[in-house]
Amino acid sequence: MECLRDIWLSICENKDAVWSFGEFAAISAVLLIIFAVSFLGCILPMLPGVFLAFCGILIWKLTIGFYSISWLSVFICAVLALFAQVLDFWLPIKYTPTRQGARGALFGVVFGIVLSFAFPPLALIAIFFSPPLFAFVFERAWGDSKMAWRSGKGAFWGTLLGVFAKSAIIFIMILIALLDSFID
Question: Which one of 53, 80, 114, 148 has the fewest beta carbons within 10 angstroms of its own beta carbon?
Fold first, then answer.
């Protein structure tokens, strides 16, 4: 708590903050919760993790860091958030060796998202296993079993890589905001 008070005092001295310490602590707690949930959103598809992280940075900019976080940093974070969403759909498709497997992986991504919204307890199973399963099924329907296994395996690794990429992008977004906020 002492560290939080020191940060608040440095903001008050340098930027003429309009928040009391209690308001600052409450906003900081809400932002920490938003950022923690955004990391969970990398795994659970019903939580828009990267979008939550961007909203957290926007809230940070408009409340605590209005004078310290630049709009350029907010724009960079928005571009990173869009890039993460593209990666989320593209990576499972990229690592499948054929078109049929890629179509199956894309169908599996969409099916996994729909299934996770319909049945939230199945979210982890749906998002990790529906792209490989559908890549395997689509490939097996039009090809041989060896290529089907390669397509399923590629879609699984692409999905897993997407989770790590989104987590890294959220971390980079938070780091950009922190550096812009505390380094003048």
Answer: 114
pLDDT surpasses 70 at 154: yes
User: Is-above-0.85 flag for pTM?
Assistant: no
What's the CA gap between 54 and 165, in Å, rounded?
Answer: 15
Mean of the per-residue pLDDT values of the chain? 81
State residue 14's pLDDT score.
Answer: 52
Tokens 């708590």 found at = 1
- Quick one: 166 exposed, middle or buried, by C-beta within 10 A (0-12, 13-18, 19+)? buried
- 33: nearest Cα among 58, 47, 50, 53: 53
What is the pLDDT, as a whole number, of residue 51? 92
Q: Is 164 exposed, middle or buried (0-12, 13-18, 19+ CB in 10 A)?
A: exposed
